[in-house]
């Protein structure tokens, strides 16, 4: 008898990740340059009680919305980055950094009256000494840029919207996502709906926007809910830590004040809480990671979530893939990105573990899954894995 193979309505996680390279993404938001100066502290300065640091390394990395674009490109999607830079050295260095990562910088609008956002971090023996910030002031004003710059942004947006498969807004409240740009984006979306993810420090500015999903972290959500209810941003009245009953309340209050289809409330090491307009909610735990570095992990999560949704994933599966990406990102130093092959390996391991659960006893499944996860973690940390075959082989290794 011929065996009938039933296929799932949705593609598998591995198929989803493989299809990322077919997607075209428009990223809109505030770009910045992250510079790391590293060195060794040798002595105290004779001019004051500060260390003298001998420079050993310098690293320049795209930050802000540019890091989101870098994550998307590392996942092999095609990316257009719409933002503003100044006519200055930091802007030139940022463009060089983007080009080195095969990210097209021609949609960056140069404003001669603006300064490129630049965060310079100085580390001595691996410890932060100081961070210098240059560039615009954070706020919720419509836009600090010239009228000419704003018009060029709007013209670029109209041209790029037809080209892209999905839109990702990475808004740090420095002015790229102006009121006029938000209105135009909503108009374009109404005429031609696409997957649309919003990651904003000021979600209240997007209250009337019918996005697919918004991705605030828990603190941002608490502050916004407080502001909407009391008129001021405060965490007073919220219990400390992550209480899932309170998380659910915050998510419901937040979604009721927005027009988006979903809220994906990120909870750091506790994972993500999903809620949709039908009231369906699910908490997806994060993978345990030791010595995690969460700088840029939110960008990795948002980028992967958007790609998975545009590739055809259900929201819960898209969030699981995004958590896989964030778990990889937090194992890396500095502002890091997740490579396509790394994510493909991670979702493959998760698929293997899922299949093993249905085919083997729970005890064998638990042991094998633990071993697979442990080996993967050790490899990411740069350690070697040696296989031995006999009682004394470990000594020979």
Please name the defining characteristics of this protein.
single chain; 397 residues; UDP-N-acetylmuramoyl-L-alanine:D-glutamate ligase; 9-stranded mixed β-sheet; 4-stranded mixed β-sheet; 39% helix; disordered N terminus
How is this structure best described in words?
- The protein has 397 residues and is of the alpha/beta class.
- The protein has two domains: 13-30 and 62-103 and 136-338, UDP-N-acetylmuramoyl-L-alanine:D-glutamate ligase, CATH 3.40.1190.20; 342-385.
- Helix content is 39%, strand content 23%.
- The protein is built from twelve helices and 13 strands.
- It has helices spanning 13-18, 65-74, 89-100, 147-163, 179-191, 218-230, 244-256, 297-310, 315-329, 340-359, 362-380, 393-396, and strands at residues 24-29, 31-44, 51-64, 78-86, 108-111, 117-124, 127-134, 166-171, 195-200, 213-214, 262-266, 272-276, 281-284.
- Helix 9 crosses helix 10 (340-359) and helix 10 (340-359) packs antiparallel against helix 11.
- The longest helix is centred in the C-terminal third of the chain and has 20 residues, at 340-359.
- The termini are far apart.
- The model is unreliable at 1-7 (pLDDT under 50).
Largest sheet: 9 strands, mixed
CATH class of the largest domain: Alpha Beta
User: At CATH's second level, what is the architecture of the largest domain?
Assistant: 3-Layer(aba) Sandwich
CA radius of gyration is 23 Å
Task: Identify the overall geometry.
Answer: globular
Q: Number of helix segments? A: 12
CATH topology of the largest domain: UDP-N-acetylmuramoyl-L-alanine:D-glutamate ligase
C-alpha termini separation: 52 Å
**Chain-averaged pLDDT:** 87
Q: Output the CATH homologous superfamily of the largest domain.
A: Ribokinase
Low-confidence stretches: 1-7
Order of helices and strands: HEEEHEHEEEHEHEEHHEEEHHHHH
Fraction of residues in helices? 25-40%
* Overall structural domain count: 2
How large a portion of the residues is in β-strands, by DSSP E? 15-25%
Structural class: alpha/beta
What is the strand tally? 13
Which sequence of strands runs across the widest sheet? Answer: 5-4-1-8-9-10-11-12-13
